[in-house]
Structures
1.
Amino acid sequence: QVQLVESGGGLAQPGGSLRLSCAASGFTFSSYGMSWARQAPGKGLEWVSSMDNDVSVTYYADSVKGRFTISRDNAKNTVYLQMNSLEPENTALYYCGRGSLNIMDWGQGTQVTVSS
């Protein structure tokens, strides 16, 4: 079955960086777009970024454009989210999803806390 396991979350200071990873299994990874979304405390799920299976095509929410970078390694069945210039407002549970325009499955999430 499809499994998506996020890692790399933690505590970062404002202005700092984190790199999230999502290890995928149970499907042909290279055939699917992948996405990241987040849920801040008391808020709904917010889409962050997507990448088509064609690695040259990426999409970002305006709130993270220029600071976050999505990438993938098809040999490792892993998608990444490099997060730079972190802000307290980026504190959330971050999820990876299978798909780009239509998300079919979600992982369990990894917590990111940005605080001094």
2.
Amino acid sequence: QVQLEESGGGSVQAGGSLRLSCAASGLVLSSYCMAWFRQAPGKARERVARINFAGLTSYADSAKGRFTISKDNAKSTLYLLMNSLKPEDTAMYYCADCGQNYWGRGTQVTVSS
């Protein structure tokens, strides 16, 4: 059974940083393309960043230059380092495989101005 569990969310002021973690079990992280998504109230879900099995990354325009996705295959953990946070980054953040077959429950990020 695949389980993804996010952590690391919280409330920060604009300009601050957070590092989200996603602990994965039931799948071999090194064999999967993984991604971080976010959804703000009343808005569509957005893929923020992805990292493929080889470690190649890509980002939404809104995240480029500020967010970094990474993974530790030995720890079976996916990360999202978020710097220079803006109020518009406020959302529930989810990790999932790129095929969106497996999802965590999410972790809330709130950025105040």
3.
Amino acid sequence: EVQLVESGGGLVQPGGSLRLSCAASGFTFDDYSMNWVRQVPGKGLEWISRINNGGSTNYADSAKGRFTISRDNAKNTVDLQMNSLKPEDTAVYYCNTLHGGRNYWGQGTQVTVSS
């Protein structure tokens, strides 16, 4: 069974940093791309970043230059380092993978950027 468990969210002041982590299990992690996606209450999902099985990365314009995605295939984890956080980054952050034609999601971790 595919499982994704996010951690690392919290309350941070504008300009601060957080590091989110997603622990994956139930599939051959090395073989799959992983995404970070966020959702503001009442709004749709916003894709933030992707890392493929080779380590190549992509970012949404809102994340470029501030966020860094990385993966540790030995630990089956994918992290999102978020720097220079802004109030508009406030959202629930999810990790996601497409496996066997189905999208899998974690439970999400809340990030709140506020003074």
4.
Amino acid sequence: QLQASGGGLVQPGGSLRLSCRASGFSFSIGWMYWVRRPLGKEVEWASSISPGSILTYYKNSVRGRFTISRDDANNTVYLQMNSLKPEDTALYYCAKDSEGLTRGQGTLVTVSS
């Protein structure tokens, strides 16, 4: 299971830190992903992190503003989001695949003044 939390309403330029607690699989040996679904749009990949946190990747529009990290001891993946923009408004999910097919419960991020 995957359960994201930490979303909320934030003003443009603000920050949020999302968390996703995983259970039921070998978390530490797999890639983890954050995907998001803007309202009325398709799910899109946002960020990835490799086992051991060796590699990280970001969608162009979030690179430099978002930081993905993981805590294998606690089976948790994080997404630190800074300098948030209205276009970042979406339901955010963590997943075991980049398309979000394995995503669990999401958390809503709303960026608005």
